[in-house]
Amino acid sequence: MGGESLSVRLRRFARAFGEFIYGATVYDWVRELDKERGRLQSLFILIVFGDLLGIPIIPPYYQLRLLPYVVPHLSTWKRSMLREPDITEIFDEDMG
Question: How many other CB atoms sit within 10 Å of the CB of residue 77?
Answer without folding.
Answer: 20
